[in-house]
Amino acid sequence: MSKPVLFLKNASIFQRESLILSEVNVSINKGEFVYLIGKTGTGKSSFMKTLYGDLPLQEGDGEIVDFDLRTLKEKDIPFLRRKLGVVFQDFKLLNDRTVNDNLLFVLKATGWKDKKSMETKIDEVLGKVGMKTKGFKYPYQLSGGEQQRVAIARALLNDPELILADEPTGNLDPQTSVEVMEVLQDINKNGNTILMATHDYALLLKYPSKTLKCDENQIFEVVQKTV
């Protein structure tokens, strides 16, 4: 058995002094597509933030892409994030730069130097999300769905071992949500591991997969009923 890309044992998630989730036991293996569901305020975002180093793990054991979350130091967080792809609900694109320059900015910030390699990589990730012809455009010239595709492309730049998608369809209409979901499904079929927080239950029915639920300070796996 290969080692899980994400592993938490008897972990407690805190937001400052407040206990958000307790006794968290989660394991995600390479190549899995996993949903994280739960009502607003049940701890989905706090859980995600702990995984990418925004909140410290104060109790229990946790490991993500070979980083120990309990001993994670401030200086290690940029290196952790290079091995993760993070996709947010609100895209977080730089509006004063074109799509290509948004991606170039990330590559330079994560230590890429060779111009040709960077251009090739940008072309490759935009191709994966069906945005190859839109590299010259600015984010404000794109629809919400297109902006989220670019955000997914950005998450793929450093060949992440795990993609954390936090409500990636939260700001999109149902049709666009399906299009973005198709992109994520394709990426997963190509071998990328994905953990996606969502409150869009229609997507869970359309694309059933392993599901974790946040409820009453706990995270547990839900057995999906086949429709």
Keywords:
single chain; alpha/beta; Rossmann fold; globular; 7 helices
Explain the layout of strands and helices.
Layout: E1 6-15, E2 18-28, E3 33-37, H1 44-51, E4 59-64, E5 67-68, H2 77-82, E6 84-87, H3 99-109, H4 115-128, H5 144-156, E7 162-166, H6 174-189, E8 193-197, H7 201-206, E9 210-215, E10 218-222
Parallel strand pairs: 3-8, 3-9, 6-7, 7-8
Antiparallel strand pairs: 1-2, 1-4, 4-5, 9-10
Question: If you had to describe this structure to a student in words, what would you say it looks like?
Answer:
Keywords: ATP-binding, Nucleotide-binding. It is built from seven helices and ten strands. Helix content is 33%, strand content 26%. Helix 4 (115-128) packs across helix 5 and helix 5 (144-156) runs parallel beside helix 6. The chain has 227 residues and is of the alpha/beta class.
Gist of the model:
The chain is of the alpha/beta class and 227 residues long. The protein has a domain at 6-94 and 161-222: P-loop containing nucleotide triphosphate hydrolases (Rossmann fold), CATH 3.40.50.300. It is 33% helix and 26% strand.
Largest beta sheet: strand ordering:
6-7-8-3-9-10
CATH class call of the domain at 6-94 and 161-222: Alpha Beta
Mean of residue pLDDT? Answer: 92
> What's the number of extended β-strand segments?
10
CATH level-3 fold name of the domain at 6-94 and 161-222: Rossmann fold
Helix content: 25-40%
The CATH architecture of the domain at 6-94 and 161-222 comes to 3-Layer(aba) Sandwich
Structural class: alpha/beta
Domain ABC transporter: 6-227
Protein name: Cell division ATP-binding protein FtsE
Organism: Planktosalinus lacus
Keywords: ATP-binding, Nucleotide-binding
